[in-house]
Amino acid sequence: MPAPLLSLRGLSKSYVTVRANRDIDLDVAEGSIHAILGENGAGKSTLMKLIYGVESPDAGEMRWQGNPVAPSSPNEARSQGIGMVFQHFSLFETLTVVENISLIVPGKKRALVARIRQLGQDYGLEVDPLAHVHALSVGERQRVEIIRCLMTDPKLLILDEPTSVLPPQSVRTLFETLLKLRDRGVSILFISHKLEEIRSICDHATILRDGAVTGHVDPREHDAHDLAQMMIGRDMPAPRPFVPREPGPVLLELAGLDYQPDDPFQMSLKAVSLKLHTGEILGIAGVSGNGQGELARLISGETRRHAEARDEVMMFGQPVGDLGAAARRRLGFAFVPEERLGRGAIPEMSLSDNSLLTAHGLGLVRHGLIDRGAEDAFTRRCIADYDVRTPGPQAEAGALSGGNLQKFIVGREMELAPKLFFVSQPTWGVDIGAATEIRRRLVDMRNAGAAVLVISEEIEELFDICDRIQVIREGRLSPSLTVSETRVEEVGRYMIGAEEGAA
Amino acid sequence: MSALSFIIAGMLAAAMPFLLAALGELVAERSGVLNLGIEGMMALGAVVAFIVVRQSGGHAMGFVAAGLASAALSLVFAWLALAVRANQVAAGLAIGILGQGLSALFGKRYESLTVPGLPKLSVPGLSDLPLVGGLFSQDAVVWLGLLATLAIWATLRFSKLGLVIRAVGENPHAARALGYNVIGIRYGAVAFGGLMAGFAGAYAATVYTPLWAEGMIAGRGWIALALVVFATWMTGRVVFGAVLFGAVSLSQLAAQAGGVALNSQLLASLPYIVTILVLGAISANKRLLKINGVASLGEPFGR
């Protein structure tokens, strides 16, 4: 048997407070698509940084084609034939595609442009080499990243959560690209937490939990349930059953809202209409960057309209377009924003003080003074009821992991018992167990008669919990689709604009 | 000589201290470092150049010494901002004040002394043109400064080095992930900024007004800083802003000399007002700001 392309033995890496990788063993064969499966915080990204030379391991050995190596920089890793497509932080928005690529690929601009076009044709990665990156969609940016890697002629390509930003049709195109690459002898390390994807494309899977390897398996021989168990270490909680309900009165209505933001890099919204009734969950699907953020800010009240346009946003039958976020909340509206740090919570403040930010109306303030006892009790209730893992109410919000902080914020908002609830990206970066719990709570709220609006980029999530879905694309909303009568592919077509004529 | 031809002939020289300092700061800021100590670095460069020229080391020696001294001071700032990761605003202000203090200290014995200026080099033929002829008769530093401007513009725009500097300024984390030495590049950019500030100070003290007076930089470093921002980090606009400022400064002098019946304080503030209005108006374009602005400006970068 030939030596594996990449072989790791006993690789460990600790940061100040966490042991991110413990004793990792891993073999990647030539011509293999190898999955690294794990929850957020399981140590996948750290491991990739070690392989790619961004960080150095504290202990352990790395072999490349049988020879010991210790890449101390990405340059070194690249020169050996390792390429990496990052999930974040990797393209420069103010530069053009070819400029971005020329940062790591030597050569004359004209030659690079030609090669970019050629690779685009060969692998289905078409993109305009002279376009500025800020003008590209997320999917196109990913293509640029992959092209950039391919131009260095790698033997191993690392892809960090490549499908998390793509609509379903683009995922299929990406997979075709990956299979073509594999057939031409490129091995692929595919990092993901999406089990079905891994089962459909990978021939090996290494599963990480809490920084250690919990299994090496052939994913095609296990079902998703098995893999999930290895990944989270216990059984998955079952989704909450739906209680069929007749939708009640309309609590939130946007009627043909047009919005032109000041910032040229933001999406303008065109003729956006939606109606949200009590006792239902409406999902907004779409690829990120299609106007979700702008829509969220208009609904939450962060973006206020001038007084003439106040009836563009109606809550509880009242025009609120010109009201600020606090005024809208007083009507019985609550909101979980997409950014936890800075919008959902103040990172430098304790959880207790973060409670106060939106729950001050629940008796946490008396005669204009903060009632520390009530604040503490409320915070403890959120921590206990929503399974927030933290030393206590005095912990700094910024010190919590993303998933734990999200549970805290969702808990805080749900404790307000809103009649109209709006959540943006409810389970982004949240581990599977907690994500399922958050979804169950959302369905509970709906069953209890609240009106719930959810923006999410995860179609499966929306299909799990929503009564209806509308798709946002380039600032326009599709007609409402009833989930029980709709297939995922249909939503996907709206996401990529194939239903343009119909919409 | 009419007032207009006087302004046309002198505006490049008047602009030179601003231009040199602003171009250096432009490079530093493009890499993501905000150096607020420009004023002090110009002051240090001015005194060093003045002393060297006065000891008759010649202007070339004076400029080299000034550039090196200011670059060294800027490296102290860079060390604070990049290695110690101090707050860039505070570190820049502190180093700037240090530079002004050193300048006053070293210059004590030279107060009110003078040095010879530089001769004008004329472009044959063109310098005899009516009205605009003076434009083609400038000292060597102006000619070199214009060449340097072109070189900086071309480097930032077309070269790999410029690309890397811009990339580091926009997203240092990504640049590091690609294998670039972010800290090293920033050190280089800040040192270049210091060097240019030193030249700017040297020009002000030994060529433009070859006479030593404490505090002679008189806020020109701050104007240079403002020019960079108002010019939305674009080289061409920095040049435009600096020349505009120089031209308006000269026109208010011409106006005073010509006995215009306007309050002299008001006239003296004219260059500032005009420059702020004009550049404020052209920098109102949010799209340009977003594309040319430096996303990581002033943020400490750590591993």
From TrEMBL, chain A:
Q: Which Pfam families match?
A: ABC_tran
Q: Where is the ABC transporter domain?
A: 6-235, 252-499
Q: What terms describe the molecular function in GO for this protein?
A: ATP binding; ATP hydrolysis activity
**Which keywords does the record carry?**
ATP-binding, Nucleotide-binding
Q: Supply the PROSITE patterns for this chain.
A: ABC_TRANSPORTER_1 (PS00211), ABC_TRANSPORTER_2 (PS50893)
Task: List, alphabetically, the InterPro entries matched.
Answer: AAA+_ATPase, ABC_carbohydrate_import_ATPase, ABC_transporter-like_ATP-bd, ABC_transporter-like_CS, P-loop_NTPase
Query: What is the name of the protein in this document?
Result: Probable sugar ABC transporter, ATP-binding protein
From TrEMBL, chain B:
Q: Which residues form a coiled coil?
A: none
Query: Mainly localized where?
Result: membrane
Q: Which UniProt keywords apply?
A: Cell membrane, Membrane, Transmembrane, Transmembrane helix
Q: Which GO molecular function, any one, fits this protein according to its record?
A: transmembrane transporter activity
- How does this protein sit in the membrane? Multi-pass membrane protein
**Any stretches that span the bilayer, and where are they?**
32-53, 60-82, 88-107, 128-154, 187-211, 260-282
Q: Name one GO cellular component term.
A: plasma membrane
Quote the subcellular location field of this record. Cell membrane
| Top-level lineage group | Bacteria
**Protein's name in the database:** Probable sugar ABC transporter, permease protein
Give the organism's phylogenetic lineage.
Bacteria, Pseudomonadati, Pseudomonadota, Alphaproteobacteria, Rhodobacterales
